[in-house]
């Protein structure tokens, strides 16, 4: 029996949005309206501003518990891994950060890594993958794949356990899905205990919700989706190749997954479509829809984010049992 309450039209109505969430969204639009565009000022300058705490996202907080490891990819280049781990991990969580494949960094979400480590008992490993436009596709997924392979081979030696989960937000959700598929198809590994996809991008040819979102500056607009995907895929015409858009992949024999998205997110369809295809391929999956949640809503302290992150942490802890 299908739980149709997830698709109750009331869930997507303005009346379902709490006053707190509506206030946050209005504040974000006001803060972002007229703000610089990364493709105009340049990605390096925009990244530097983010590290100074400028823009809508909270200033980065560096955890004293974090350490950095260095591994080498097959071609010899170094990949940094940001690690926050409890004393006795019960699993390993491979975390892939968001930022449209252009922005963000493994050391810019230490509170998130700490939260997952503390609430799930896992050693959290975040990948400093190469960013576009300097390093377009396939650099980022190659680095994430290399990190997954390294953990598969060295996780028990490094952390004392080999049970693994994976997840990420936005572009990180996309890279998590690509990594799961690459590990299955290229390395014969289908042992992930669970996958956390928070408002991921799964169709880089752009789903209807991406195309129709418009120019309201609520974190991710239609023009942002175009600019990010064009930076990541500058010379690729067919963007529905499964390694680029995992929505079009063979999704059989994959792990349990939790899909999280807000109703005011340009990537709403990506989550709805990918969850449906995940389940239709015979995989367990949960769908969590949050009224009024904007893109990246879990990164802003408020009740909606607290509810979503609590469910994410409970899922990641449960799949290890």
Identify the notable features of this structure and list them briefly.
single chain; 321 residues; alpha/beta; Rossmann fold; 8-stranded mixed sheet; 17% strand
Description:
The protein is α/β, with parallel strands linked by helices and 321 residues long. The chain has a single domain, classed as Alpha/Beta hydrolase fold, catalytic domain (Rossmann fold), CATH 3.40.50.1820. 38% of the residues lie in helices and 17% in strands. The chain is built from ten helices and eight strands. It has helices spanning 19-32, 38-41, 43-51, 110-120, 139-159, 171-187, 208-212, 222-232, 268-280, 303-318; strands at 67-72, 78-84, 91-96, 122-128, 164-169, 194-198, 257-264, 285-294. An eight-stranded mixed β-sheet has the order 1-2-4-3-5-6-7-8, sandwiched between helices. Helix 6 links the parallel strand 5 (164-169) and strand 6 (194-198).
Structural class: alpha/beta
Instruction: Name the average pLDDT.
Output: 96
CATH topology: Rossmann fold
Estimate nothing, just give the exact number of structural domains: 1
What general form does the structure show?
Answer: globular
Spatial order of the strands in the main sheet? 1-2-4-3-5-6-7-8
Task: Please tell me the CATH architecture by its name.
Answer: 3-Layer(aba) Sandwich
β-sheet strand percentage? 15-25%
């Amino acid at each position: 029996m299908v739980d149709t309450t997830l698709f109750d039209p009331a869930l997507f109505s303005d009346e379902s949005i709490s006053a707190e969430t509506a206030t946050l969204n209005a504040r974000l639009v006001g803060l972002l309206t007229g703000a610089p565009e990364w493709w105009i000022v340049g990605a390096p300058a925009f990244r530097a501003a983010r590290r100074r705490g400028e823009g809508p996202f909270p200033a980065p907080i560096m955890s004293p518990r974090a350490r950095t490891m260095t591994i080498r990819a097959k071609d010899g280049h170094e990949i940094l891994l940001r690690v926050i781990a409890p004393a006795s991990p019960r699993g390993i969580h491979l975390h892939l950060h968001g930022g449209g494949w252009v922005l963000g960094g493994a050391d810019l979400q230490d509170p998130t890594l700490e939260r997952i480590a503390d609430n799930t008992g896992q050693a959290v490993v975040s990948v400093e993958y190469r960013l576009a436009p300097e390093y377009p596709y396939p650099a980022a997924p190659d680095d994430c794949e290399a990190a997954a392979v390294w953990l598969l081979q060295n996780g028990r030696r490094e952390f004392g356990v080999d049970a693994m989960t994976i997840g990420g937000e936005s572009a990180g959700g996309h890279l998590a899905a690509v990594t799961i598929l690459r590990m299955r198809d290229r390395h014969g590994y289908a042992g992930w205990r669970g996958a956390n996809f928070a408002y991921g991008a799964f169709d880089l040819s752009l789903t209807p919700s991406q195309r129709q979102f418009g120019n309201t500056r609520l974190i991710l607009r239609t023009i942002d989706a175009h600019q990010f995907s064009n930076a990541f895929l500058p010379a690729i015409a067919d963007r529905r190749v499964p390694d680029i858009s995992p929505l079009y992949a063979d999704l059989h024999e994959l792990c349990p997954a939790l899909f999280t998205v807000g109703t005011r997110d340009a990537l709403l369809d990506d989550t709805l479509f990918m969850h449906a295809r995940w389940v239709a391929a015979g995989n367990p999956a949960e769908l969590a829809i949050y009224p009024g949640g904007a893109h990246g809503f879990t990164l802003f302290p408020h009740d909606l984010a607290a509810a979503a992150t609590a469910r994410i942490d409970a899922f990641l802890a449960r799949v290890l049992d």
